[in-house]
Amino acid sequence: MSSSNTFDLESQTINGVSCPAPAYTAPSSRTTNPVDDFFGYTFTRDSRRVSVTSEALPPYAETLPSYATSQKSEPVTLARYLFKFGFLFPLFWILGAIILISPLSAPDSSDAVLSWLPEKTDAERQQIIKDVRKTELKWAKRCLLALIALIFLAAAIATTAWAVIHSH
After folding, report:
1. SS3 17
2. Helix 78-85 and helix 91-101: axis angle, to 10°?
3. 95 within domain boundaries
4. Cβ atoms of residues 36 and 49 within 8 Å
5. Number of compact structural domains in the chain
6. What's the superkingdom here (predicted)?
7. How far apart are CA 79 and CA 129, in angstroms?
8. Is 139 within a domain?
9. Domain that holds residue 150
10. Is residue 21 included in any domain, yes or no?
11. What percentage of the chain exceeds 70 in pLDDT?
12. β-bridge mates for residue 41, sequence order
């Protein structure tokens, strides 16, 4: 039971089924860079940026998609910066871990607090403080975990070095 696929070049058929004509591609007069085509611009000597795309942009949507409105950006906190810069200077992780034992309290209800976000109600300000505190604790826990991992890594390296030195 073997079936052979036959292709006739002159009639462009496969087993009696006609194939569409091959697609026409216009020869390009200029050479393009695939990276420039992907990002939609190219650098030239005359100008810093020249647009390559000639198609019109789609109209703006009246409403945002549901996933765009539900996504909430995380507040930028000190512990977040301490975690990220701890990879360059690990002592920052110690400072970030200290945030876990420090009392994170809301500011007193003085004139300074009323000048902070005056357009917000007191309930909205308390919610913002709660969100910042939650984010601060999340990044402080990450600082602590990174510090513990660094200590275990240093202990493993020191133990291995000690074992290698005393084995000879």
Report:
1. strand
2. 150
3. yes
4. no
5. 1
6. Eukaryota
7. 15
8. yes
9. 73-167
10. no
11. 52
12. 51
Question: What six digits make up the tokens of 54?
Answer: 């000639």
The band of 65, judged by pLDDT with boundaries at 50, 70 and 90, is: low
At residue 116, the pLDDT reads 73
H or E segment to which residue 168 belongs: none
pLDDT band at 168 (very low <50, low <70, confident <90, very high): confident
> Is 36 a member of any domain?
no
**SS3 of 38-78:** HHCEECCCCCCCEECCCCCCCCCCCCCCHHHHHCCCCCCCH
pLDDT digits (tens, 9 = 90+) for 70-128: 556 888 899 999 999 999 999 999 999 999 998 877 666 665 555 677 788 888 888 88
| Alpha carbons 155 and 158: distance in angstroms, whole number | 5
Q: Tell the burial category of 100 from Cβ atoms under 10 Å away from its Cβ (0-12, 13-18, 19+).
A: middle
